[in-house]
Protein: NAD(P)H-dependent oxidoreductase
Organism: Stakelama saccharophila
Amino acid sequence: MKQPHIVALGGTLRPQSATGALLDAALSIAAESGARTTLLTGDVIAFPNFEPEEALASDAITRFLDVLRSADGLIIGSPGYHGSLSGMVKNALDHVELLRGDERVYFDGMPVGLIATAGGWQAAVSTLEALRTIVHALRGWPTPLGVAVNTGERGDCVAAAEPQLRLMLNQMRWFLDR
């Protein structure tokens, strides 16, 4: 297979967010196996609320969509806010609607790894489930393993999650090699 392009989308506006660090770690693992990687986080995905008639006038949104079009695999990460994904990540995913007329509609046939972080297991797991539901609606193929991280526990959450991130990336690679 050609060199896959793995795109990570999500995080927060905070430069040191746990979600952003986990997305970055996942992309490092993907790069180890020869993938080309792109991280879409922070200001890069802090778009105005989705308005289909106006969205394509934004260069930032056009660049975002072009990166998604070039992706072979996707990793979506969100912090858990009140038991679900953040508004910023949801709004970025709402803009995927602009791919509805593409040859590959939305994320059709694409493996999608998921990462959810929260200050407790309940919110992390419910956020992971919300992400899984959205990916199904966008025709993506969520990996069997999604990574839920309780950032309220002591220690380095990135180091603790590394084995799960590796397994998730291996599942994405397996899908891409088919």
